[in-house]
Amino acid sequence: MPRHGDRDPVRLDPGNHDDPGSGRCLMEHVSMLAGESFRAWPRCTHPAVAALATQVNDRCSDEGRAALLGRAEALARADSDDPALTWRLVGLTAEATLVVRPHDRGATRRLARARRSRRLWGTALPGPLVRRLPRWAVVGCGLAALDELVAAVHALVAVAGPPGSPERDIVLVALLDSVLDAVLDDAPAPAAATPPPPPAPIDTAIVMKELVA
Length: 213
What we know:
This protein is mainly alpha-helical. The protein has helices at 26-33, 47-59, 62-68, 72-75, 85-100, 105-124, 127-130, 135-140, 146-160, 166-185, 204-212. The longest helix has 20 residues, at 105-124. The chain is flat and about 45 Å long. The model is unreliable at 1-7 and 190-213 (pLDDT under 50).
């Protein structure tokens, strides 16, 4: 059980922790809200969103992390069936960099690459096909771009302000808000009361092999 009570408000810390008694980062706190095992990668949150939220948590000041607590419930619902979601987050992060530093060449190139990759995934995996794939296959589509997402966040941090500054906190919290807005707006709709007949089976291994080739 967590040691935090009404008289001991939740405090977010950087890094990962073994248990709630030794501290918690934002995503570990989300895992507890969702009733999952204590970890930084709760199943309720898309891995790309969790990766970005973790980067934001670790690079905010103590005051900035306090502001992140209000985003925890939204993060517990931030799942997606978009196979190009990671690239979408790369694009949002590049756009945030361009707000701080207009005409930044690295961010401009990264944004163009993200938009191109999203179009390619949309062509390769149209909506009807995505809905027939298991969750692990859809989520796995974007894992190869996680390094690109982390690099995009690092580039934003480099121009967002000094470590521990309110300026950096504002930029990073705003980035997380933009990500949550995008993901929650596109969240999968609740299942229908009368589900349609199951689709014909497909060989997901073949589909994934073709996409990552």
